[in-house]
Amino acid sequence: MTESGSAPGTLRPGGRTARTRAAVRDAVLTGLGEHGYPGLTVEYVAEHSGVHKTTLYRRWGGIEGLLADTLDLAGEDDWSPPDTGSLEGDLRALAREAADSFTDPGQAAAPTAIIAAAFQSRRAADALHAFYAERFSRCERVVHRAVERGEAPAGTDAGAVVRAVSAPLYFRLFITREPIDPALADQSATAVLAAVRAGAFASARAAGRPVMSG
Question: Any idea where the HTH tetR-type domain is (predicted)?
Fold first, then answer.
């Protein structure tokens, strides 16, 4: 723990410390892309970030702490979900962005390695969960806008909708190890859109259906 009581690498200071944190983040991502999680070492991060390894151990505790802070820092960006003017366009854009992030050779190595790390490290898994929970929370606004425009039923579960868009893509990528492409991303968005319009994601109470009890 640091003097403030926070876990190593969890502070969000500015100035030189923020630059150091960003340099370490960049080195971690580069190392993940080149060597994957099993091959990433503190020595590698030290060499490529310019931060001495004793400092890395003191502030982050090791590779797990470095990876967790990399995800934490990624969640502090200013990314916003698409706003195309329609639910169909927004869902399609979200699906394509998810697909691109794991199929573009220039982008895919690091996030793929982070996913793999979550199966080997509990701390990495917790950090990944927090990252995606925050990301999906931002994406919910596309569904809220759709409800306001009358494109989706009142009571539509925004969180379930945005997760459903990327779920088939991630299943193929990490479970069945099948290729994905823009056409598959569009198919996923179209299927979710149809389910939204049919009320599949709306609560029974909001949709006016009788609520079954035990």
Answer: 18-78
